[in-house]
Amino acid sequence: MSQKVPNEDNVLIRMHNAGFITSAKARSVEELAGILSVDVRTIRQVIERAVAQGYLESIADGRTKYFLSKKGIMFVSSLFT
Question: pTM here?
């Protein structure tokens, strides 16, 4: 069974809706993969692109965790206006 690769916009929207918008609410790649029901390798690729574009920031808290940057929040908000 092939797994649908999530659209980067959908990942950012779902992170926004889940409240992953501060370092205190950051989630690891593994946690995000579970929440989005996507394999870790796939979500890692999406996250790498989003980080490169400035939409996500990361913190190291035992393992790297990600949250929406201000630019990411503005991007998601712009999708609805």
Answer: 0.87
